[in-house]
């Protein structure tokens, strides 16, 4: 289960990020570096250091730009040896990202609908589809683009699995252990529920990195993950 847990290093200090990694030790081998860490904590260099130490790195940068820019940016990330990278799940963007990652082990993940958004948020943003409908469309487009997987709420994981088949990764943020606060997330599930729904990887940040004892929090989540057995 340890390889399925991705801890989000959502901090602004490299020293704090390294402290968290040290506290978690061998219990966690996969880390997400998103905007806050990438821009505020020298996250690119941190990612390279983690990779050199034998950890896996997920750069959650949600790239979206013209095709050439996306392709070149993805190629630069691929050279680091990172395991995963997010792009927005627009068809042109995903196809460009696949070209940029060609020949590497970098898995491209398309971000479908953020877990902080619900139907009313999509309507405000101008989308005609509801959350489930837009996630389904993005899943079809991701499958056709040939990327490695999707980032989606665990609430849509079973639907996504039916669309993309058994081989693509489904990475689910918005994971909250039983009894914890949802925070600003609107579509959340517990670790066991998410795995049972078809998720392959779970992203957890605040419930671990803000815990009084991050190592104990991570071990509790891993124990809870053991009760959710479905992997695909």
UniProtKB/TrEMBL annotation:
GO molecular function, one term: orotidine-5'-phosphate decarboxylase activity
Protein's job: Catalyzes the decarboxylation of orotidine 5'-monophosphate (OMP) to uridine 5'-monophosphate (UMP).
CDD domains: OMP_decarboxylase_like (cd04725)
Reaction equations catalysed: orotidine 5'-phosphate + H(+) = UMP + CO2
InterPro entries, A to Z: Aldolase_TIM, OMPdecase, OMPdecase_AS, OMPdecase_bac, OMPdeCOase_dom, RibuloseP-bd_barrel
E.C. number: 4.1.1.23
Keyword Lyase: yes
The name this protein goes by in its record: Orotidine 5'-phosphate decarboxylase
Keyword Lyase part of the UniProt annotation: yes
SUPFAM superfamilies in the record: Ribulose-phoshate binding barrel
